[in-house]
Amino acid sequence: MIENEPLDAGLGGGDDDDDFDVTEEFDAQLPEQRYLDRELSWLAFNQRVLELAEDPAVPALERANFLAIFASNLDEFFMVRVAGLKRRILTGLAVPTNVGRAPADALADISTEAHRLQVRHAEAWMNDVRPALAEAGIELVKYDSLSDDDKSTIYDYFHAQVFPVLMPLAVDPAHPFPYISGLSLNLAIRIRNARTGRQEFARLKVPAMLPRFVPLPSLDGRLRYMSMEDVISNHLDDLFPGMEVLDHHAFRLTRNEDVVIEEDESENLIQALEAELLRRRFGPPIRLEITDDMDDVTLDLLLKELEITAQEVYRLTGPLDLRGLFDLGRIDRPDLRYKPHVPTTHMAFQPGDNNERPDIFAAIRKNDVLVHHPYESFATSVQAFLEHAAKDPHVLAIKQTLYRTSGDSPIVEALINAAEAGKQVLALVEIKARFDEAANIVWARKLEKAGVHVVYGLVGLKTHCKLAHVIREENGVLRSYSHIGTGNYNPKTSRIYEDFGLFTADDQVGRDLTRLFNELSGYAIEKKFKRLLVAPLHLRKGLLRLIDKERLNALEGKKARVRIKVNSMVDEQIIDALYRASQAGVSVEVWVRGICSLRPGVAGMSENIIVRSILGRYLEHSRIFSFENDGDPITYIGSADMMHRNLDRRVEALVKVVAPPHLKELHDLFDLAMSDSTSSWHLGADGEWVRHSLDAEGKALVDIQDRTMTNVQRRRRARAVR
């Protein structure tokens, strides 16, 4: 986590941000205990993921996938959020909390809730999802249930594919307790020397490169698998010949993997980050997961050697590390998955009547184009835009931000091809994108070798905005073509992340992006943008000004409404502004995927605020900010969540959406999300999320993601007819 304070100047936005004073006194008083705890709210988000895994109406393999997502999410929560909180406590730094509790109390509450959820997660696998898979013909079997023929098959597999790569490590006076890597699955083994009678301890790591679940020959058409730790643990005698295996138990350690870089003290950011990534592997332990049958002798040894407390131990039934359920995704059973959605190509980018290749630049010159992923294809819009720009001889320059991308990314390849073709290419690579740092360093160096101008943004700030800017010469005049998105330039995640992207040839947006890229790559300080709101200097001010305008409109009897869709709603100034708007009678609708510290429905404070959350096959990732403005709506889309880090420590950009059809599309989507006929979770004043998935007659409510795909396809057919 980057701890540097934001810059004092630059990266602004809007025409009159400085006219709004965020410290302005309001007559309406707000109660002290008005925020929900952000960490507990995050755990509540992961509980919503777990509820999808528990839902028998969700296809069985999708339920297994949600269990894996829950496990992966919780790992990151401990590695970053819990680790960061512990680090602040140990170093005496201020601990941000929205409820004023002592840090130790906050950590204890997190531990209690995390324990409850991990137990529920394990039980969901054992009691719900595993039986559902078995009923559908996919079994995860135990070694003891196998026939002699099956055991022989497993024995042969073990010796041919597993035994050669295992490395048992003894623990005795000559062999100190081994290093346990973070998130590795291990076996703690107690053995007795048959000659001396002395008991010893050994640790065996389950190699990550081996399959998590080993396939067995199918039986009566049923697919059968066995966990790798079960395969290994039933052949320990072969690993310790001449020894008596007394007991064995699985365990898994989570370490602090937060990254802290003091950029101001580093002459080379990449070298500093590479050094920090090496240190990440040796972060202090913060969680120990064990199987529920582990004996006290083994546990006491682990607690002592790992220097971990009993509060940090999670005793669980069933197999550890259910991230392995992602591997079941390779099973070819479409009947156990969501009905497939096939992305369409946006009508603006459709081939012509004779199936000729679409002219992307001509389409954008004609009108702004708003693309909604994954319902509309990333490959035939964003990717095609950049690939076309790389090959077009009239394109002189391409400027792009890269926060997270993927291996063998066609986006990166397009930038490389453009540079090799002699175009000016600037890539702003955010090498501090958490858990993608190493991959982004590789891409940065590959781009540099190809002649791309690679920069890493501004000291102390992550560059999180999603921007692509193409300069093209047309009849002796330079024209800008711009893309501003809510999601990463990542073809893989674009198929599962819901996002919007706006293509425009608007000169004002082009000038805004030229100024912004100049600031990110050089020394320019640009405080004003016309169609963009940019963090860290003015985005919060701009949103506060727009929210307050709705408050004033409501007081004057004018039309007033605020609609915000984000991943997280945490920032206290934004929340307080929404409370004050609610007190003035403004209808406030918040659509949040993850954390929400706002407390809706409190009499006298937030009775005009409703909060909804939607989770499903796609990860809701877009950010929308819409203000009624007395019947002349002002709407932005972009990359920023309502969090301190986004508003104070990141470069973020929102773009104003102006085309009436685009405004209608965004508002219709919000109408659907807020409708009582749509399946969603509702947040109460007590901080509890309640799922609404069935109507009064027990029928399933509308799935907004299915309905959106239907609506996109219907619009395409209607346009084709016209």
From TrEMBL:
Alphabetized Pfam families for the sequence: PP_kinase, PP_kinase_C, PP_kinase_C_1, PP_kinase_N
Record: active site: H464
Catalyzed chemical reaction(s): [phosphate](n) + ATP = [phosphate](n+1) + ADP
Post-translational modification: An intermediate of this reaction is the autophosphorylated ppk in which a phosphate is covalently linked to a histidine residue through a N-P bond.
Isomerase as UniProt keyword: no
EC number: 2.7.4.1
Residues that coordinate or bind Mg(2+): R404, R434
Cofactor field: Mg(2+)
Residue intervals of the PLD phosphodiesterase domain: 616-646
Range of residues in the leader sequence: none
Gene Ontology molecular function: any one: polyphosphate kinase activity
Annotated binding of ATP, by residue: N73, Y497, R593, H621
SUPFAM superfamilies (alphabetical): Phospholipase D/nuclease, PHP14-like, PPK N-terminal domain-like
Keyword annotations: ATP-binding, Kinase, Magnesium, Metal-binding, Nucleotide-binding, Phosphoprotein, Transferase
Family the entry assigns: Belongs to the polyphosphate kinase 1 (PPK1) family.
Role summary: Catalyzes the reversible transfer of the terminal phosphate of ATP to form a long-chain polyphosphate (polyP).
PANTHER family: POLYPHOSPHATE KINASE (PTHR30218:SF0)
Protein name: Polyphosphate kinase
Species annotation: Microbacterium marmarense
